Prior knowledge:
- The chain is of the alpha+beta class.
- It is built from two helices and four strands, in the order βαββαβ.
Amino acid sequence: MHADPDACIGSGLCALRLPEVFDQSEEDGTVVLLRAEPGPDQQAGVVQAVDTCPARALWVETTGA
């Protein structure tokens, strides 16, 4: 799981959707990644957060099989 605070526009959708994984900086409202490796029970929420990020500041690296 990766987050780019430089690309983030501070919409907060990720932090609202999954506060155990994402937060917002008190300084400028940009994304703060709390857990780089979310648990299996959080994967659906991570996918939704990545898909709904308006700045595309979130992504998950996948390994090819």
